[in-house]
Amino acid sequence: MEPLKSARPQRVAATKPKNYGPASRKITTQVHSKSPPNPNAKVASPTPLTPAAVQRESLDGQATTSDAESVELVPDDVTNMAAGSTSVDEENAQHAVPHEKEGNAMASTPTHILTPGYLDIYFKQATDRFHSMIQKAVDQCLEKLTTLESSVDASIQFERKRVDAIEENQKLMESKMKMMEKEVAELRSEVMKNKIAANKSERISRRNNVRIVGVPEPPQDQREDCVEAVEGLLRSKFEMETKLERAHRDGRKVEGRPRHILVRFLSYREKVDVMRRAREALKDERCFVVDDLITQSDLEEKRKWRDQVQEMYKKGTKLSFYAGKWRQHGGIPFNFK
């Protein structure tokens, strides 16, 4: 008698998925104990491994610390460590999904990356790279500083030469300026001496001259002979028969005031006689005689202190002007300062 066949199908043993990757890489599948496998489910073919994954596969067999010290660290492994991946199965699942769905897959880190020796190698290599980079940058900076220092030194030497040349020129100019100042002082002294000598010579040349002030002028349409007029005045008022060298009107015309008559005698003695008799002889006339020794420089000096002389005269101090100076009693020049 044959046993009855159960209507419920028997469980089918889970088939192991085919490995399409390298022979050295094992893909493990975790089977849930409560849910039966689906025999009709399609198994997705894994994608080819990346070069970094292949390199990790080659490093999987080297689990010991001594073997890991001779392996160069792959940057992708450190990146996976930083992301917190620790499962080998998740690493295998990441390579089994397509490239566009990598964001949904979880990465895993090989076991040898977690070993202390492997991390020491990585940090040593990173430190060496960083040190070489810093050393290269420092060397470049030192090279630039050396070039800059040489150029600055050359510029300083050039400017120092210029400054030395300027200082020499300045010293030369200062010596020339001192010589010129000395020469200018000497020239001023010479000019002053010449001015005094010229003024004195002009004053001496006026020793025979007098000015007759207040003699009326004839109308413009009539010609005036000053020599005959002065000789007639000397005969009638001074009772002197004197021959004049020259006589003429001097100064600018002013309305209502006659110009002076400048008279030059042939001898100094005749001039002195006229000056002595002038006050008595012309006491009834509206004219008077004054000496003509004052030059233009003397006139400027006389007008310069005229107000002070008038104030002093009101207080009882009398000064007289001659030989180019205001003088007090005894002919001593008065110091207004």
Protein described:
It is a single chain. With 337 residues, this protein is of the alpha+beta class. Helix content is 49%, strand content 8%. It has helices at residues 51-60, 65-68, 75-82, 88-96, 116-205, 226-238, 268-281, 296-304, 306-314; strands spanning 209-213, 244-250, 260-265, 288-291, 320-322, 325-327. The strands form 2 sheets. It has a 4-stranded antiparallel β-sheet with strand order 2-3-1-4, with helices on one face. A two-stranded antiparallel ribbon has the order 5-6. Mean pLDDT is 75; it is low at 1-7, 11-49, 51-55 and 57-107.
In short:
This protein has 337 residues and is of the alpha+beta class. It has helices at residues 51-60, 65-68, 75-82, 88-96, 116-205, 226-238, 268-281, 296-304, 306-314; strands spanning 209-213, 244-250, 260-265, 288-291, 320-322, 325-327.
Coarse morphology = rod-shaped
The SSE string, one letter per element, is HHHHHEHEEHEHHEE
Could you describe the largest sheet, including whether it forms a barrel? 4 strands, antiparallel
> Averaging pLDDT over every residue, what do you get?
75
